[in-house]
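Let us work through a complete example step by step.
Step 1: write down the sequence.
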Amino acid sequence: NIADGLIGIHRSITRGFTIAEETLQCMVQNTLSDKQSLNGFLEYLRSLVTLVHAHHSTEDRIVFPIFRTKTMEAPYALLGKEHVQMEKLLNQIKPLIEKLAEDKQDMVSIKKLQQLIQALHDLWSPHIEIEQCRFSGSTISTHMSTEEQQQIAQRVGQHMTENAKPDYLVIPFLFYNLSSQDRKMMQPFLPPNITSLLTTWKDNWATMK
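Step 2: predict the structure and record it as tokens.
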């Protein structure tokens, strides 16, 4: 069901915001000093930013247009407006991540990043509540056949893979921010060889753990 993929990616990103906020607070308090942990956290932030962008791009270009044609009622204008608002925050976050990569003791950037992540999270929570209410599994199944949903799942998976780069960081980010049950739910939206890919990419993503 398309709703499963929607819920899964929402949960992964939501956990990403929570971890980012907790880690930034540790940085403000100067309780996260291990260099490897800091480098891994910056990769984690980059992956979070990329995944949010790729997810919204997928909704704007694939999911919402299809839902509209199926006469599924939702405040699409509001959702689109909020995507734009969040994109503006993402564009402010990106250079701050790179500033921290150059100077991990830059407290001004750390605190600004903390504020922006919190603002993004504050927008995100009510936004996904609307989506999950309007696009529930029962609602989608009323308007679309199982076959149609499978076809959309393939398109969504392909679009996400093409836009969530580098895949060796973003896909592990998505996967490991999910519970084991949610990973199963997200299976149709992930690369079919996800297990072998995670093993192959481990040297790249391990620092984000």
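Step 3: interpret the result. The chain has a mean pLDDT of 90.
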